[in-house]
Structure formats: C-alpha cells, structure tokens
Amino acid sequence: MINPLNNVFNKLKVNSVKSTYHFEMPDNAKIIIVTPFVDPFGDGITLSMIEKEGAFTVSDDGYTLWNLRTRIINGDNEAKYNRLLAAIGNHNQVNLTSHIGLSKSGGEDEIPQLINTVTQTIIEINTMAYWLNSQ
C-alpha cells in the first residue's frame, strides 16, 4: 500500500514553498515542516503533518501553548489569554486542544493553505500574547 504522506512529502519538496520551508520525513507517519519564521522569543516555528484516512492534519504539537504557559500565562492572567487564544483560533478556523495544540485538517489539495493558516495563527497568537504581556 502506498503511503499518502510519501506522495505529499515528494510534492512538497518540489513545490514553490520549498524555497522558504524545509521538509523532513523522519518516519512514514509524520512530515516535519520547518518554517522560516521565529516566535517573539527567538524560537523557530516548526509544524508536523500526519495523515489519517485521507485527511491531513497540520499541527504545532502543542508547542505554542506550552511555550506561552511556561513564559507568560499564569493563574492571574489565564482567563485573558484563554479568550485571546480562542478568538484567534476561531477567526482562523484552527482547532485548539491541550493534547495536540493548534491544528487544522483538510484534504491533500489544501495542504499549502493548512500550513499557511497554522503558521499565521501561531504568529498572531505569539505576537498578541507578547504584546499584552509587555503592557
């Protein structure tokens, strides 16, 4: 049986996105997407993509939420940041869960947009959180 992730990996490597993004496939279950962007803390933004039953899911594997909770969010401001996270996630139609983090799923033809949307959502959340924290 042909692994759909292998086909996607090969397409991404020759796609125009390749000039700015780096793709790795450490095993047959996941593609690692290294973006050209960094968060306000200087950490690179890296995503992963999995395939299940024809649906492709791009995720940050929970890193953004973990990063904010260890650096910014505490008991005093948690409600404010939870509203911010929910508002940005809803606006961008990105799922936000504690176990998978920020994620968006779609078909193979939507993969470039999935990568873009999740990346943009991470940038928006980090920028707003960093800005609110500096006030």
Verbal overview:
The protein has helices at 4-14, 63-71, 78-91, 111-134, and strands at residues 22-27, 30-38, 44-52, 55-59, 95-97, 101-106. It has one domain (4-134): 2-Layer Sandwich (Yope Regulator, Chain: A), CATH 3.30.1460. The longest helix has 24 residues, at 111-134. Strands 1-2-3-4-6-5 form a 6-stranded antiparallel β-sheet. By secondary structure, the protein is of the alpha+beta class. The protein has 4 helices and 6 strands; from the N terminus they run αββββααββα. Residues 35-125 form the DUF1828 domain. This is DUF1828 domain-containing protein.
Straight-line distance between termini: 55 Å
Can you tell me the CATH topology? Answer: Yope Regulator, Chain: A
Largest sheet: 6 strands, antiparallel
Shape, principal axes of CA atoms: elongated
Which structural class matches the secondary elements? alpha+beta
Ranges where pLDDT stays below 50 over 5 or more residues in a row are none
Major beta sheet, strand line-up: 1-2-3-4-6-5
